Sequence to fold (432 residues):
Amino acid sequence: MALHCFTQLGRKARCKLLLSPSWLFRGPLSAHSSSSSSNTADGFPAGNHLIYTQEHFALRSSLRQIIDKEINPFVDKWEEEGHFPAHQVFKSLGKAGFLGVNRPTEYGGMGLDFSYSTAVAEELGNIRCGGVPMAIGVQSELATFSLARFGSDELKREFLVPAIAGDVVTCLGVSESGAGSDVASIKTKAVRKGDDYIINGDKMWITSGCQADWMCLLANTSEGPPHRNKSLLCLPMKLPGVHVAKKIDKMGMRSSDTAQIFFEDVRVPSKYLIGEEGMGFTYQMLQFQEERMWGAASVLEQLENVVQETIDYTRQRKAFNQPILHNQTVHFCLAELATEIELLRSLLYHAVALYIRGHDVTKFASMAKLKAGRLSREVADRCLQFWGGMGFTNEVLVSRSYRDTRLLSIGAGADEVMLSIICKYMGILPKK
Ligand SMILES: Cc1cc2nc3c(=O)[nH]c(=O)nc-3n(C[C@H](O)[C@H](O)[C@H](O)COP(=O)(O)OP(=O)(O)OC[C@H]3O[C@@H](n4cnc5c(N)ncnc54)[C@H](O)[C@@H]3O)c2cc1C
Fold:
């Protein structure tokens, strides 16, 4: 079966195929796969890859077809318009299974381990902007993480199944106007009244907040200590009292809508609580681990594309009678950046390999996230320089990357928060 047929199979068939021992543990490629797919992008046999098998590459190759046909041709338009049609794009990704790779099969997911989500995140880096991959990640990884792990069967049927199928758009509501890095200090409250919670407060910077059908909301459900008084709730966005106040105008990630949202006496049934009351902060911290690895994975291909396009441009662009690439300062710099990207990739694979074996990878995930943010800034900035005036236009990937990847050092825990976590694990963070 050719790999491109993979997504055309029904969901059950895909899961069965990916999970069947013959597919998972086959050695070198059998005759039914195309020969070009037997190698990774670097030309190494897929069987020799640190964390990816042939099945990871099959998944990536199927996703690449959707990206090339249904996403990349429209990215410039979506960037200009300041949003992308999330319902339409997610339907297509959901149909092919990409919104539930790491989610249980009973709810429409593929039931695969996190290395497959990493492979998907890497491939999404080939989308020619950061906004669309970010919104996909919010849907497939962030907003549904706790629901899939800790939610009741009833809740999963109501909210998780349509999210995986791509029938709805979801968002994650953690940050507030007064609390971003310091998640414990959020102020939004969900007060229990009879069989309902009454929600009041605000959420800020909410990705896909203008289009979302439901939000995974973090709110204070009691007056107790800040790490034990929070809960996660599934909050339908069309309820009375949910006000999407504004779409935030941003310097980058232009195609992703980002909202500020207010809640005024919003009433949700108590059965919409995810897992146990008071465990929301803990669930959220668990989710951040995956988010940080996913974020690092999602940027690798984009950085490589920026370096490659810079090589292509500087090879044909001449100054002082020679290609710009022939200046040692230019080609050495590009070689250095390529080396750094490879180092980040190795760190990420190390973290993912340990994670899927059940280890606590908080330190490595934080290191990968920190490095991904800093390296993205460096790659975009140094490459942009070699494009001269062209790098300052909106017509090239490097300038979009310069604007989009800047977020990586801020969102999902700023660089300084990552450094604090790493210090804690090194035993050098002073006690308060
Ligand atoms: C485009 C975009 C999309 C987003 N999407 C979502 C979303 O979908 N859902 C969601 O909940 N949130 C989302 N966020 C919010 C994001 O996670 C927060 O912006 C981030 O956590 C930082 O919080 P803050 O902006 O309030 O910065 P602040 O907490 O005010 O921090 C500002 C700066 O202070 C410094 N700082 C903070 N803490 C320390 C420290 N301990 N030591 C030293 N320096 C420190 C850092 O440099 C930091 O950047 C998004 C943000 C953006 C911009």
The beta strands are 170-173, 189-193, 196-207, 214-220, 230-236, 242-247, 258-269, 273-274, 318-319, 322-323. The first strand starts at residue 170 and ends at 173. Residues 138, 171-175, 180-181, 205-207, 250, 253, 258, 407, 410-412, 414, 416-417, 420 surround flavin-adenine dinucleotide (CB under 6 Å).
